[in-house]
Amino acid sequence: MSAAAIAAVVIGRNEGERLIRCLRSLQGQVQQLVYVDSGSTDGSAAAARELGALVVDLDLSQPFTAARARNAGLAELEPGIEFVQFVDGDCEVNPDWIATAADFMQAHPKAAVACGRRRERFPEVSVYNRLCDAEWDTPAGEAKACGGDALMRVAAVYTAGGYREGLIAGEEPELCLRLRRAGWQVWRLEAEMTLHDAQMLRFTQWWNRSRRAGHAFAEGAALHGTGPERHWVAETRRALLWGAALPAGIASAALAHPLLLMIALIYPAQVLRLSRRTGFEQALFTVLGKFAEAAGALEFYWRRWRGSARGILEYK
């Protein structure tokens, strides 16, 4: 597959050396390289220009979202671009990935999205990085959704109307849902795609990331939960059950009789149950994460009732 039909759109905000590594990994692989900057103060935009990227500086007067940044990059593509590789600025693209994904897309004309294995660059640095690495390890084959890194068919994305710019998270699964409804396919290939640098070293970073996921679950379910896919309905219910309803019920029961506080043992029991499949570390944080996810979901409902939108929720 000739690189003449492929572009890359990189989005970022204060990624520093990670961005430079990302852009260099794309040089020579694509016809057009676009970098969309969301208000960086570390010289990212200037560094991208020096590396030959077309730089788009988002208007600071409007709220930042990754979805908005990706749409801004998409709008800058040259005529004739058939595929676009979306990449987060903290990722390095594998040198074989774009050619592998493009060949697959050409052989599968109904495929709108191809993604591969994203790995954490430093999983040994923290438990939170390891959790990210496990999260990226999804099964190969036809899939429901992709993450931020993926090769997409430009015509399909245009037809779907691009990303929903108001979403602060979960914009890729939401786009993939609309693509699948339109008859397109999403594929996860058994191929190395990107190295990601989460740089999560503190519990508060992991908590905020999990809270953002809960917000995305609730908003996604509000948008598409009544459809046949029941988009993120189960994820939202689990978060609210384990992270809000059960704790409230246990606290109420304990007020009636202190011994009823023993009901809280359901949480370590759940950790032990899940650890048989995922290991103790992942099971523990899966259960803990439900409290953060519930907080994010409840915030979405509170803001929707008040009629106010939330800005981006960063964890770095």
How many structural domains can be distinguished in the coordinates?
Answer: 2
Structural class: alpha/beta
* Major beta sheet summary: 9 strands, mixed
Poorly predicted regions: none
Q: Per DSSP, what share of the residues sits in E-state strands of 2 or more residues? A: 15-25%
Number of strands: 9
Fourth-level CATH superfamily of the largest domain = Spore Coat Polysaccharide Biosynthesis Protein SpsA, Chain A
Q: Provide mean pLDDT, rounded.
A: 94
N-to-C CA distance: 37 Å
Along the chain, the helix and strand elements come as: EHEHEHEEHEHEEHHEHHHH
DSSP helical segment count: 11
Name given to the CATH architecture of the largest domain: Alpha-Beta Complex
* Rg over C-alpha atoms, rounded to the nearest angstrom: 20 Å
Level of helix content? 40-55%
* CATH class (first level) name of the largest domain: Alpha Beta
Please characterize this protein's 3D structure:
By secondary structure, the chain is an alpha/beta fold. The protein has 2 domains: 3-201, Spore Coat Polysaccharide Biosynthesis Protein SpsA, Chain A (Alpha-Beta Complex); 205-306, no CATH class. 48% of the residues lie in helices and 17% in strands. It has helices at 17-26, 44-50, 66-74, 97-107, 127-136, 154-160, 171-181, 203-224, 233-256, 266-278, 280-306, and strands at residues 6-12, 32-37, 54-57, 83-88, 91-93, 111-120, 141-143, 150-153, 185-196. Strands 1, 2, 3, 4, 5, 6, 7, 8 and 9 form a 9-stranded mixed sheet that branches. Strand 1, helix 1 and strand 2 (32-37) form a beta-alpha-beta unit. Helix 8 (203-224) packs across helix 9, helix 8 packs across helix 11 and helix 10 (266-278) packs across helix 11 (280-306). It is globular, with a radius of gyration of 20 Å.
